[in-house]
Amino acid sequence: MADHLIQWIAPVRERRLEYEKHPARVLEIIDAGSKAARTEAQATMSRVREAVFGWDKKRAEIAGA
């Protein structure tokens, strides 16, 4: 079983060594992921706010009053 585990984890270890050699690339990947996650979170929170508070509807009511 240990031999199979070592064989299975080998590609992961190789990628980790590659990333260790290029820390700037790791930061680029993290930054890109953070940016994508932030965009998705903002869209999700917009939907949540509308569903919970009805902000667009309330704004329209206030603007029309």
Describe this structure in words.
It is a single chain. This protein starts with a helix and ends with a helix. Helix 2 crosses helix 3. 94% of the residues lie in helices and 0% in strands. It has 65 residues and is mainly α. The chain contains 3 helices and no strands. The protein is elongated and about 70 Å long.
Oligomeric nature of the chains: single chain
**Low-confidence spans:** none
Structural class designation = mainly alpha
The whole-number mean of residue pLDDT values reads: 93
| Secondary structure: number of strands | 0
* Shape call: elongated
Radius of gyration: 23 Å
Q: Give the helices and strands as they follow along the chain.
A: HHH
> Helix content range of the residues, please?
over 70%
- Give the distance, in angstroms, between the N- and C-terminal Cα atoms: 72 Å
Work out the strand percent. Answer: under 5%
Our count of helices gives 3
| Biggest sheet statistics | none
